[in-house]
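Re: weekly structure request thread

Next one in the queue (411 aa):
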Amino acid sequence: MSFPFYIASRYLVSKKSRNAINIISIISIAGVAVGTAALIIVLSVFNGFEDLLMRLNNSFDPDIKVLPATGKTFVPDSNFQSVLHDCDFVSSVSYTLEENALLQYNEKQVIATVKGVDENFFATTGLDSMVVRGDALLYNERVSCAIMGAGVAYSMGVICDYLEPLTISVPSRTAEIKGNFSDAASDLLNNVTLYPSGIFAIQQEYDTRYVVMPIDEVRRLLEFDDEVGAAEIKLKKKALPNEAVKQLSAKLGDKFKVLDRNKQHEYAYKIMQSEKWAIFMILIFILLIASFNIIASITMLIIDKRNDISILRSMGADDSAIRRIFFIEGLGISIVGAVIGLFVGGIICWLQMSYGFVKLGDGTGSFIIDAYPVSIHIIDILWSFVAVMLIGLFAAWIPVRFVTKRLKENN
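Done, posted below.
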């Protein structure tokens, strides 16, 4: 153990001659601990919401989505299908087609997005696990069915009883206006009739917008033959999304866009990351303000130990060794506070993950989850510890650099 470290450790744990210094030292450690714990807790809550958003999106969105680079549709020819078939990381592929349409159920009408899917859609996504009423069926015997978002179904008063049909209308792409427009309005619309088989609840973005139905019915509405809007891909468990995107992009060329989940919701994820790091910087600023307690504590300790400094000099300690003593003392306060904060923050996060004692809203179950979600990421702990240490270095350096120099001048 080096001489400066030994003396600094004695100063850190021993009782000071003035009680005010003890109080300020305790406040300094407490301030660093509270700030560090707040960093861990807040970042973990943001991680929890991000993971929750990803899980919800996973129920409707695929691991990878392939879209045409230009236009809204494309025909998946044999070359396209062979590329997907030859990729060893592909688990399943579903072809989908979307369009806005007018929905009518009884006397109520709503504009929504109809998403035509094939029989592989439930294997590619997890939509069937999010059905809260009825069944996840695209066909019931010989009748085509629709699975509706909870918001769309609620606004139309839909009941999954196979008694009342759901009529979906889309303007025809090829019909021509003949005679009076009002008389020809019915001829300008393509209509299909389905029966609601189930209602899914994921999140508002999907629940108030989407109706899932067989892709053949959407093609009939849009007067298409084999066109699709996207190829939705589920990856095998050990496949890496980034590598899969690179390989597919290279094989398919510039005619297609290959998007992973982050790219499919790029705007939402960027907002969450920006908010997370904005809160991180605000808490770092608060920790920076709290570090003035460390500056005050080290300054008063140096003044209190003037006699000790004189004795150490007479024993042969140079100014560099004396500075290191008090610098290590200030750094020790930061380390102790950071360790306590990491421990306390980790315990609070664990309790929230295990018991969910901090509820969302009024606890009536009106949210998707009952309590704030929490997810601890090691990288956040490392960043928080590094940030606290940098602030501790700054807070320890200032008084050591200037106060010991002033004491030397006075002597």
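The first helix runs from residue 3 to 13. The chain has a mean pLDDT of 83.
Next request, please.
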